[in-house]
Amino acid sequence: MFRAAILALALGTASAFVAPAPARATTVVKAFENEIGAQPPLGFFDPLGMLDGADQDRFDRLRYVEVKHGRICMLGVAGWLTTSNGVRLPGDIDYSGTSFASIGTGWDATQSVPVAGALQIFAFVGFLELFVMKDSANGAEPGEFPGDFRNGALDFGWDTFSEEEKASKRAIELNNGRAAQMGILGLMVHEKLDSNALFEKVGGAYIGLQCDGLICEIGKTAF
After folding, report:
1. Which end of the chain has fewer CB within 10 Å, C or N?
2. What is the pLDDT of residues 36-79, one digit of tens each?
3. How far apart (Å, rounded) are the C-alpha atoms in residues 39 and 34?
4. What is the C-alpha separation between 91 and 97, in angstroms, rounded?
5. pTM of the predicted protein model
6. Are 174 and 66 in contact (CB under 8 A)?
């Protein structure tokens, strides 16, 4: 009995020196609930828990990746819509006489571009990634915010905007980028399923959008 009492007392005393349990990850997550991008209708949306226990550096890294992917996908959707409507550069893509007009659209284009052309595209994108698209503002490191690629050249009057205008434009870019990521995924999936919702194959032609200036209508574009 005496030994049991001593053991219980020792255990109780030792518990006083045990470090308290860390705060729940939700406490850290709450710090990001008011960040740009946490907006209606979803608000703060992190179903995979990627910000559980995250600090500001982790959040900034994820935001940087999100912004970059969104910009790439916006360009991708714009390029897909443009080429799907038959818009091509004039002339040939190589010395053997492969014309730009003969290059397909979407997945088909990846099979049509000559290897040398694909390597040039890869090298150009790599150059932009390593030397141009840097997260800096007017030559300063780091940028004013994740994804600030002005680099002292591409400003477009950003510094003349109020803080509210800056926040609004950044939120708009995030939303458009998120929509574009879903959009380009949908375009690729539907093309592989041969049931493209925007450009439906009809007898060797595409039913798509034909535009005259800012006015667009459904029309038939042959390839």
Report:
1. N
2. 888 877 888 888 888 888 888 888 889 989 999 999 999 999 98
3. 8
4. 9
5. 0.70
6. yes
According to the model, what pLDDT value does residue 35 have?
87
Pairing of strands 215-222, 205-212: antiparallel
Which distant-in-sequence residues (6+ apart) come within 8 Å of 138 by Cβ?
150, 151, 152, 155
Strand partners, 208: 219
In degrees rounded to 5, what are phi and psi of residue 212? -120, 100
Number of CB atoms found within 10 A of residue 174's CB? 20
Q: How far is 44 from 54, CA to CA, in rounded Å? A: 14
Average pLDDT over residues 188-206: 58
Contact (Cβ atoms closer than 8 angstroms) between residue 146 and residue 67: yes
88-125: b (≥16 Cβ within 10 Å) or e: eeeeebeeeeeeeeebebbeeeeeebeeeeeeeeeeee
Closest CA to 206 of 85, 53, 71: 85
Residue 137 neighbours by CB distance under 10 Å = 19
Give the pLDDT confidence score for residue 174 in this predicted structure: 93
How far is Cα 10 from Cα 16, in angstroms, rounded to an integer? 10
Task: Please give the single-letter amino acid code of residue 203.
Answer: G
Amino acid, res. 62? L
Cis ω on the peptide bond leading into residue 41 (within 30° of 0)? yes
- Give the integer Cα–Cα distance in Å for 130 and 119: 16
Model confidence pLDDT, tens digit, residues 107-120: 778 888 888 888 99
Q: What is the mean pLDDT of the chain?
A: 75
- The Cα–Cα gap between 186 and 148 comes to 28
